[in-house]
Amino acid sequence: MSVRVDETTAGTRGTTAEDLLREAAHLYADDPAASEAVERLRRRLQEPLRVALAGRIKAGKSTLLNAIVGEELAPTDTGECTRIVTWYRHGEVPDVTVRLRDGTAARQPVRRVRGRLQLDTGGHDLREVARIEVTWPSPALTRMTVIDTPGLASLSTEVSERTTEALTPELGAPEVDAVVYLMRHLHTSDAELLEAFREATVGDASAVGTLAVLSRADEIGGGRIDAMVSASDVARRYAHDPRVRAMALDVLPVAGLLAEGAHALRQVDFDALREIAMLPPARRESLLASADRFGTQSVDELEVASPALRAELLARLGFYGVRLASALLRGPGLDATALAKELSRRSGLGPLTSALTTQLGQRAGALKTRSALAGLEQVLAEHPRDEAADLAERADALRAGDHAITELEWAARLRRGAAGALEDVLRTEAERLLGMHGSAPSERLGLAPSASREKQLDAAMAASERWRWVAADPLSDRESVGLALSAVRSLDALLLQLGGS
Q1: Do the strands 105-108 and 95-100 form a parallel or antiparallel pair, or are they unpaired?
Q2: Residue-range definition of the domain harbouring residue 170
Q3: How far from 340 is each of 263, 316, 317, CA to CA, in Å?
Q4: How many angstroms separate the first and last alpha carbons of the chain?
Q5: What's the alpha-carbon Rg for the chain, to the nearest Å?
Q6: 295-323 confidence digits (pLDDT tens)
Q7: What's the CATH number where 184 sits?
Q8: 278-282, 358-362, 393-397: which has the minimum mean pLDDT?
Q9: Which of 8, 19, 12, 2 is nearest to 391 (CA)?
Q10: Each residue's pLDDT tens digit, 72-125
């Protein structure tokens, strides 16, 4: 049975994704399955951006999630719940719910052991569980819903498939809007999953919805004080690799364990680290010669930093974090709070959270709209009706006409090396104008944040003239013209925002 869109609805039809979903809800009011799917899409538009953490097994996903959220929520052991997709959402009251594949749900008690949240399936077989949802009152989760996925290349094919299913479903759009992909090195399976996510993403724009993280970055330098410098060099090389550029917006080094441990630094940890820092140089260097020696060597001078506590420090901060803390505490006086902030700063977490907030967060609307339109097209295809034809055409037109989505798609094409015969300097400028380095006018124009409005207007008008010339040049190839027209449209919006003519 079909439902006719009445004249009142037709007369108020709009042009936003929310408008189209509202019409779809009316169209499928008599179809419970389709109606529920449409309602999920409508809610999705109102939710924070969905960001999935993915990577090979032991890449440090759960540790990084805890660092981002600022709470020890995700289990970091090898328990059964690390083999299940787990969603972390914001809520005023802590809650844990197990969602089963048959559509039912079972709430579980919220339990913490030694400060860390304990998750379990409530006695359900892993094969029955679709995902676990954790609701937690964390400010970080007001900006994004974080999805922790099982490790890829697991010995269990079923476990790896849970992640693949979440990121690259066979039908419709992925359940996630953006991906933070963790890797220790660029393994073949890493490239394969990123490529699969790119192909499954609407508009082929996953390159600007994906951040790659060189996880456990401190291990690259073997725990040396300059380990993160070495990791930054490696990340920079990966970021310029054409294969990675085509699949990710950037590559950032992060010492996830240090970031997590810095947030949870206790006074007893600080006292032990300060005592180690104050040892005579020869004894201190002997103790810090290796992780094994640090965790087991007996040192007569130490009263607070027992072998047991030192082993715990290694587990909480890593060897790099211990050595770094020791070096910092030999400088000007730091208290526990100041040390924790400095360790967090040096972990690389700051640039990652900044990228999530700016490069992905500022694109949240376009990313969510793109996902919602893909979901709507899936509903229309699975529940065909004559009256839905116009809706499908308008959804397609909306995606084509939404400049924020167009920017995403052109930016992704630039990442893959496209742009016709344009010179490198114009390619670089195009990336900025399309918002790949940030959405603020000064960031798009390549100016300092303190640049005056007049200077920004001058730069925008000069860029507009330059790109209009590229678009009108008879020698420009078709792809260069398309990119130039998109850049001009972005500049028109900038000029309007800046109050120019």
Answers
A1: antiparallel
A2: 49-255+349-362
A3: 6, 12, 11
A4: 53
A5: 25
A6: 888 888 888 889 899 999 999 999 999 99
A7: 3.40.50.300
A8: 358-362
A9: 19
A10: 888 776 566 678 889 999 999 999 999 998 888 889 888 887 777 888 888 888
Tell me which residue of 282, 281, 276, 352 sits closest to 319, measured CA to CA.
Answer: 276
Based on the structure, what is the number of domains in the chain?
3
The residue among 425, 432, 403, 413 whose CA lies nearest residue 470 is 425
Host H or E run for residue 18: helix 17-27
Is 27 domain-assigned? no
User: For residues 166 and 129, is the Cβ–Cβ distance under 8 A?
Assistant: no
243 touches 218 (CB < 8 A): no
- d(CA 319, CA 138) in angstroms, rounded, equals 29
- Using CA atoms, how far apart are residues 450 and 438, in angstroms rounded to an integer? 15
Report which of 413, 429, 410, 435 is spatially closest to residue 493, judged by C-alpha positions. Answer: 435
Angle, helices 32-46/364-382, rounded to nearest 10 degrees: 180
Q: Which two tokens stand for residue 152?
A: 């890829």
Taking the CA atoms of 236, 325, 263 and 449 in sequence, report the sign of the dihedral they define: negative
Look up residue 66 and give its two tokens: 């805890």
pTM score, whole prediction: 0.79
DSSP calls for 174-216: -S-SEEEEEESS--HHHHHHHHHHHHHSGGG-GGGSEEEEE-S
* Residue 462 falls inside a structural domain: yes
Do 305 and 429 share a domain, yes or no? no
Look at phi and psi of residue 405 and say left if phi exceeds 0, alpha if psi is from -120 to 50, else beta: alpha
Within 10 angstroms of residue 18's Cβ, the number of other Cβ atoms is 14
* Claim to verify: residue 271 and residue 140 sit in the same structural domain: no
| 57 Ramachandran zone, left/alpha/beta (phi>0; psi -120 to 50) | beta
Same domain, 467 and 492: yes
Q: Which residues contact 475 (CB under 8 A, 6 or more apart)?
A: none
Whether 377 is covered by a domain: the verdict is no
C-alpha 209/C-alpha 198 separation (Å) is 9
* Same domain membership, residue 482 and residue 454: yes
Same domain, 223 and 317: no
